[in-house]
Amino acid sequence: MKILLVDDDQYLNQQLSKSLKAHNYVVDIATDGESGWNYIESFEYSLVILDIMLPKLNGIALCRKLRSHNYQMPVLLLTARDSCEDKVLGLDAGADDYLVKPIRAEELIARMRALLRRATISLPPVIHWRDLTLNPAKCEISYQKSVLPLTPKEYGLMELFIRSPYRVFSYDSIIEHLWSIEEPAADNTVRAHIKSLRNKLKDAGGDPKLIENVYGIGYRIKSLDDGSFSHQYSSLNRPPLSVDETVTEIWGKIKDKTIARVESIQAIAKANSRNLNNENNPRQYAYIEAHKLAGSLGTFGYGRGSEIARKIEYLLAGEQPLDTDKQTQIEQLTEDLLKELKKTPTQPQTKEIKKHPQSTVQSLLIVDHDTILGEQIIREAHSRGLEARLAPGVGIARAMMVEYQPSIILLELNFPKPEEDGLMLLEDIAYHHPEIPVVIFSRRSSFIDRLTVCRLGSRAFLQKPMSSHQIMEIVTGILNHHNITGKIIAINDDPQILELLEALLCPLGLEVKTLNTPRKFWQVLEISNPDLLIIDVEMPHYNGIDLCQVIRNEPRWRYLPILVLTNHTDPETRAELFRAGADDFISKPVVGPELIARLFSRLHRSRLWRNIAEIDTLTGIENRYKSTEDINRLIRIAGRHKQPLCFAILDLDNFKDINDQYGHDTGDWVLHRFGEVLKKAFRQEDIVGRWGGEEFAVAMYGTSKQDAMNRLQKVLDKWRLEVLVPEDNIAFSVTFSGGVAQYPEDGHDLQLLYRKADATLYEAKQAGRNQIMG
Amino acid sequence: MSQTVLIIDDDEDILFVADRCLQLQGKWQVLTASSGTEGFTIAKQQQPDVILLDLIMPGVDGEATMKMLKNDIMTTEIPVILMTAKNSPQERSLYLGLGAIAIINKPFEPLEISDQISNALGN
User: Fold this and answer.
1) Between A757 and which of A617, A649, A650, A728 could a Cys-Cys bridge form, CB atoms 3.0 to 4.6 Å apart?
2) Residue A507: which residues within 8 A CB-CB, separation 6 or more?
3) Which of the 8 DSSP states describes residue A434?
4) Cβ contact (<8 Å) for A247 and B13?
5) E strand or H helix at A134, and its extent?
6) At what positions is 4-aspartylphosphate found (chain B) (predicted)?
């Protein structure tokens, strides 16, 4: 875009032209009014910047001159004089805007942009719109060859429509364009003119509906072809439809077409054309159709339809011919989709606040210009079931924070651009979103830096270099820390204290089990499997020191945090309790905030510990050590209560092939997904653990073998149908086999049950995999 | 005071639903375009207040259209909201990096789209 700058201040000219060039403007410079005029006459400019005080011909005179010669480009005046008369004089002379020196380049450029946006775009002298021709020079509009006999207002209307063929003009904007303030017009005046215009169009052999009424808004020239929706829907006589009526009605019109589209996808999948070099590649066609359906069905109330279409889209992606598995899957999915489309759509509804579409999934925002490391962390995060996004700069990070509302932020302090500063972002987050934990990871690591970020509330400071695995360990640790829950057993012979503890702890999301005598303590401990214990020193039957010793004697409870309530402040009793295995003391009378702080600190530390020791990092379910321990506990309870218990070993089929074909990342992703499915499929009292590789163990309390097999069969049916999409363009399904053993029939301890379950699993594998045996 | 929104999408059904839904909300004047190039031309001529752009289109796709819009002085200031059925986080951050002010997931809820645009524009 070409700009003329007329100013006698050489220094300013230099500065401005530099800034303007930096914004991709082409700049010509004239240093007096006359040469400015010569430039304007010889070249075409999009905008002119004029100083008022100019040698030879001053700015205001030059402005008048160019307006009187019909130059329409925007003119921006610059002057050192900030007086009202000057401004009025300048604007009256035909200038569009006015800036007082000293000027800032940014402001000048912003104003220029505004002027250029407003500027009318020069259109070709004669405009054609379908069969209509507008000749502004003669003020004539003709339909095909015949000139329409229009009044000035009708001509004005038609010109407005033709010049902006897609725009809908409201009554107000039509009046604003065509009527002056002195001769106010009402809506029905406009309507009368439109009517007469339509009649004249009709007389000339044209379609009067060429000028289209858009209900409730105004008029526009018809832009879509005949038979289009707008034609069918834009009728003056109809009452306006509500949004859901509209959606339902549109769906009615396109339902058959949509079903035909799904059927054609199905047909293409069945035929499975190998002719991939063909220009009109049917596979490509089907892929695009599936993509469109995925993007539109939900809008019509078929949310599940969109999901199914998305799966079909993934299956169709890629170049290789479809294998039989994929073909069957697509056939199955298209069948499902057709069934789905026969249902009544759900009514459109406004959801509460739909800020984060998957609010249950925790999300990580990485703010770092090191995109390679960023991508690694994203992969690592995904394998742990965390959403993750990368913002390569502070500015983008701000935008993304608004959109994604991350659960946690990983922030680099240094950025290549000096204006991008991690500390400033941290400050903003601390101020506006103190609830979002921030982890700093940076090469900077001076004590001052560490202190600064601590004061700004950061949760951890990681020094680069650090592997993405280590980083994510810490991030997930903090996230879990953040939403802590726990089960607490409190033993005390004073009912008031128990009541107080319940009142204090239950509102914090903790589950509190109270016991007023330590006698039944051991059974309760076994059944409720607490995260923390609160005991008193003095109790009937057994005192606190006894309890501590008994608990620490049992290896399973070695890590259970124990808090002791006590009146004793003498060092000896305390020392004795510490030796017996207590972790902390709370003095009576109980002070709420202190109790809560001590208790949470214990819970966090032990949780951290246990996560490392008991949770399988890949799948998020219990590891072998922990699940073995829990299953043994269940077996003991089952024995005591004479309840059946089923133990099953599940094994993903042909898992090695997945690792070989897609790589271990994908394999890990599948294991993770399987872990999620298992976690969801079983009750809280069941035990699910990963026992190694692709082998998983499940224990179901109070369940007979037949029920257990039915439940596992349901899980298998669901898992088998799940299309796994670890990355775009990779999609497959996996099956598993399972063997079930029942306590006490198949064995009285876990070892025997495992042997039996493993043997039946082997049978299931031999029998062709993809089944449960018992 | 109604604002003008330009919707660019190759799926005529979607174009039509979005058009109707937005008009019914009364806050919007709607322009539509069924291809990137058509959208770009209309954006230049009509200077809409906001553009809703689909990412996957045959021919000039959403990303290319975005670049055209951002590289042209007449359209570079117009805020663009991307619509996409693809949800991978990498893609989303990439698109925000292109200069989109927000991303709307497809399929969209007919009743929500107006608010989603308003929210993105900050009013």
Assistant:
1) A649
2) none
3) T
4) no
5) strand A132-135
6) 54
Q: E strands, A602-713, where? A: 645-652, 687-692, 695-701
% helix / strand / coil in chain B, to the nearest 5?
40, 20, 35
Asked if A59 and A4 count as a contact pair (C-beta separation under 8 A), the reply is no
Of B83, B85, B102, the CB nearest to A403: B102
- Summarised one tens digit per residue, pLDDT across range A676-724 is 889 888 887 899 999 988 999 999 998 999 999 999 999 998 898 888 8
Q: Does the structure show a pLDDT above 50 at A309? A: yes
- Which residue from A65, A42, A46 is spatially nearest to A5, judged by alpha carbons? A46
How many Å apart are CA A211 and CA A220, to the nearest integer? 6
Cβ contacts of residue A586 below 8 Å, gap of 6+? A534, A563, A564, A565, A566, A594, A595, A598
Mean pLDDT (chain A) is 80
Task: Indicate the residue type of B100.
Answer: A
Backbone phi, then psi, for A204, in 5-degree steps? -80, 0
Amino acid sitting at position A315? L
Q: Tokens for A35?
A: 């040469």
DSSP H or E segment with residue A511: strand A510-515
Interface of A with B in 357-396 (CB under 8 A): 357, 375, 378, 387-392, 396
Q: What letter does residue B50 receive in the DSSP assignment?
A: E
- Residue B16 inside a domain? The answer is yes
- What is the number of other CB atoms lying within 10 angstroms of the CB of residue A330? 25
Residue A626 near residue A691, CB atoms below 8 Å = no
> What total of structural domains would you count in chain B?
1
pLDDT band at A728 (very low <50, low <70, confident <90, very high): low
Q: Is B21 inside any structural domain?
A: yes
Of A216, A217, A387, the CB nearest to B89: A387
A391 vs chain B: nearest CA distance in angstroms?
7
- Enumerate the H helices of chain B as residue ranges: 12-24, 36-46, 62-71, 89-97, 113-121
Tokens of A347: 């009514």
Bridge partners (DSSP) listed for residue A146: A143
**Can you state the angle between helices A468-482 and A592-614, rounded to 10 degrees?**
140
What CATH number is attached to the domain comprising B103? 3.40.50.2300
Q: Residue A553: pLDDT above 60?
A: yes
Q: How far apart are CA A618 and CA A621, in angstroms?
A: 8
Provide the angle, in degrees to the nearest 10, between the axes of the packed helices B113-121 and B12-24.
70
CA distances for A667 relative to A331, A374, A693, B18, angstroms: 26, 21, 10, 41
> Does residue A51 surpass a pLDDT of 80?
yes
What are the tokens at A320?
């290789």
Contacts of B74 in chain A (CB under 8 A): 116-117, 121
Do the strands A408-411 and A387-391 form a parallel or antiparallel pair, or are they unpaired?
unpaired
Length of chain A: 774
Whole-angstrom Cα distance, residue A658 to residue A664?
Answer: 8
Has residue A70 got a pLDDT over 90? Answer: no
Set of chain A residues whose Cβ sits within 8 Å of the Cβ of B13: 250, 254, 296
Q: Which residue has the higher pLDDT, A609 or A311?
A: A311
Say how far apart CA A727 and CA A662 lie, in whole Å. 10
User: In degrees to the nearest 10, what's the CA dihedral of A298, A300, A305, A309?
Assistant: -70
Tokens matching residue A700: 């179901």
Residues of B in contact with A240 (CB under 8 A): 24
Q: Reduce the DSSP state of residue A618 to 3 states and report it.
A: coil
| Domain span holding position B92 | 3-117
Does residue A226 surpass a pLDDT of 60? Answer: no
CA gap A55, A609 in Å, rounded: 82
A772-773 and A736-743 strand pairing: parallel
For residue B123, being part of any structural domain is answered with no
